[in-house]
Every structure is written in C-alpha cells, then in structure tokens.
Predict the structure.
Amino acid sequence: MVKVVLNNGQYKITIPKELALAKGWTAGTVLRFIETPEGDVILREMPQISQTGGRKRK
C-alpha cells in the first residue's frame, strides 16, 4: 500500500519495499513522476550523474 503524507510542507510517499528491491532502488535514487495525457502517473528512475560529469550506467 502506498500512502501520501504531508511532512514539513512537502508531500511524501512510501514505496513498497518489494518494489524498491525489485527495481534496485536505494536511498538516494532519484525518481521522476510523469503524468500522461490520460491522467496516469509513471514513476521513472533518473540517470545518476557521476562525479566526472558523465552519466552512470547501470
């Protein structure tokens, strides 16, 4: 179950542990919400930028 919480003026959600583990998401993973014209919401992992300025590959 995903729940929306208001904390210090920001809305936050909790991602189910099983989903985070399956996707390989850890603390610090940057996710982006994308809304489709139909109103669906897609959660997409953003590529991380390495210290040298290039994108890290998974």
In short: The chain has a mean pLDDT of 87. The radius of gyration is 14 Å.
